[in-house]
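Notebook p. 47: complex prediction with flavin-adenine dinucleotide.
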Amino acid sequence: MNTDRALFHPDYKPEPYWWEAARPGTQFSTDLPADTEIFVVGSGYSGLSAALELARAGRAVTVVDAQAFGEAASSRSGGGVSGGVNLGKGISGGPGQDAQAEALLTESAAAYDHVIALIEKEGIDCNLEQRGRFIGANAPKHLPGLVKKAEMLNRVLGVGATVVAKEDQRSEIGSDFYHGGVAIERAAKLHPALYYKGLLETCHAAGVSLTAHCEVTAIDGKVGGFKVQTAKSECRAEQVIIATNGYTGGLTPDLRKRLVPISSQIIVTEELPQDLADELIPKGRTISESARITSYYRLTPGNRRVMYGGRARFHHVDADVSAGLLHGMMTARWPQLKDARITHSWSGFVAMTTDSLPHIGLEKGMHYAAGCNGSGVAMMTYLGHQVARRILQDGKSDSGFANIDFPPVPVPLYNGNPWFLPIIGGYYRLRDKWERGNG
Ligand SMILES: Cc1cc2nc3c(=O)[nH]c(=O)nc-3n(C[C@H](O)[C@H](O)[C@H](O)COP(=O)(O)OP(=O)(O)OC[C@H]3O[C@@H](n4cnc5c(N)ncnc54)[C@H](O)[C@@H]3O)c2cc1C
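Predicted complex, structure tokens below:
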């Protein structure tokens, strides 16, 4: 428990700010059918997106979730929408840049277009604002790498990236913390829980069967004849989609060996005086950084509160503890927020992969989409759609994310418990600090 109570607003809640507008629940939840064509495990963006595509194609689809609808990462995120900007270290624009890497980058840009088009087509009211992103250089030596990345993103994706010198930085952010950076026009932000709610409502309207608080405990059989056991009852299905991402458990042990669940934490401040809020992010962009352990932040809809996210700790910690740590990180960037009190603090799990790329694939005949690497609003929506297309095309995938190796985590006997994270995280933190202090 953080003892500095002055940090906390009297209305403080250890839960997502987004839930004030759209709380997780069981609306549309129905009894589990005995039979379905396609059974989807997990009702986040990827599961719902897959289900929508399949239902629209006339298939009988059932989605279940172990929790309430909207309780996991999809309604806990920062709501930053990017298309390729965050793609992994394999696609950094270095000399070895090859055709496959460029194809994946291009597909990531397609993921951005896909989510924007989906929101517009379905009329989902989720405070979508296409205002771009600023990526700050945490150390002077990081800027050349960002410039190189900006050139590559412009060449391959035409994202409208421009270099921002340190002396011009205040046009992007009311802070002198960074050593310049890069502004990318082709990025957006949205209200993640309202986007989730809209997607859930759209699935319901399209005829998807939805069951909450229904953990899947075992799946047997093969394509055409799966038997799915859940905490409620049993269901027979022709095809199964695993859409469990950062919450993947022992149901799919092979997939679990390939994913590292990492806790990501967020705080939101009380409403700030208008003039103070106005100077923080003048262009209303989302902010991220060049450091290994990065923060991501933005203003919430209405532009009066700051939402600040980062890896205060790599494992799950009490929301009161991460709140204090994140407040310290936020005020290092914006000292003018030292008196801003926290109204909400929460965390959720993202799924990292060893190649920093998301993947779609098959385990024992079951389709999956996984590995958002902390950036899944656009990507997991898109990959859910791609998994559905694969089923509709009798197993043929148009996505490059289906054709890349998906290596297991190279730790002997790894089974989904990332005991090594505090060690790696501590090392990264030290390197970030050293580089910042040594140019
Ligand atoms: C704090 C935080 C901040 C983030 N910020 C951003 C951001 O700014 N921008 C961005 O693009 N991305 C962000 N992300 C990542 C993004 O939220 C995720 O990539 C995305 O929501 C993943 O969606 P999903 O459908 O794959 O998984 P999830 O939304 O995690 O859904 C998986 C579901 O599977 C269910 N499940 C697991 N096992 C079972 C089982 N056995 N039976 C039934 N159900 C099961 C879980 O209950 C869960 O509901 C953030 C994530 C977090 C946690």
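Notes: The chain has one domain: 5-423. The chain has a mean pLDDT of 92.
Next step: compare against the earlier run before touching the bench.
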